[in-house]
Amino acid sequence: MRTRHAVDTGYQRGEETRARIVLAAIKCFGEFGFAGASTRDIAHEAGVNAPALQYYFDNKEGVYTACVEYILSLVMGQMGEAIEAAERVVADPHATDKQLIDAFCELQNRKAGFMEEVPEIDGWHMFMAREQAGLGPEAGFKVFYERFSSRLAAVGANIVTRLAGVAPDDEAMRVRAVCISTLGMAFRVMRRSVDRSMGWASEPDPERNRMVREAVLEQTRHLLERIVKQRKSGG
């Protein structure tokens, strides 16, 4: 995908226009999906003419990939340091159970804090729900998977299998790793449904976010400590 900038109006203005298109596209793709959102819809939402999308992104798939790249930059800004720290712990053959559990919990802490510390972006919850369900172009999925999802899944699985005392490719324990790592996911990708069922207003609420974060961390630590107990008891 080529990245181009307006020559006649200056670099900064070109970057601002490009960013406006990306944010508009996230909203449109989140609401209508990749197939349902037209370049005309995106251009209208961004307040630009349709040829501007081709100028900056070549085609609709290029716009979509730029949206993934933008969201990925926010996610890695929140999660990158914790992933690297967890990978270092996993690489240490002498890491204790507590160090492994603490590393996993910090990953959960960063994920749970995403709602609080990353600016609200119209449509990004639905955008990511569709993306993770495989409803977007393969190119976008590949970018997100290779640079984030695969690393997060690998380090989580390695921690859980180490705590369980089983081989890294133990399928049953890798399933448990996925189950634990996705605790609280509904509060991000099913936000509207959860808000409705809980009787919550749709506006951000720091106290509510704190409750979610504490619940996720408490359950994560409990489940990981239970795995350790099972290993030590031979069961």
Main sheet: strands, sense, barrel: none
Helix content bin: over 70%
Structural class: mainly alpha
Q: Helix tally?
A: 11
Q: Measured on Cα atoms, how large is the radius of gyration? A: 20 Å
Secondary structure blueprint with pairings:
Blueprint: H1 11-36, H2 39-46, H3 51-57, H4 60-91, H5 97-117, H6 124-132, H7 138-164, H8 171-181, H9 186-189, H10 191-198, H11 206-233
Helix pairs in contact: 1-2, 1-4, 1-6, 3-4, 4-5, 4-7, 5-7, 5-11, 7-8
Structural account:
This protein is 77% helix and 0% strand. By secondary structure, it is mainly alpha-helical. The radius of gyration is 20 Å and the shape is elongated.
Quick take:
With 235 residues, this protein is mostly helical. Helix content is 77%, strand content 0%.
Key phrases:
disordered N terminus; 77% helix; mainly alpha; 235 residues; single chain
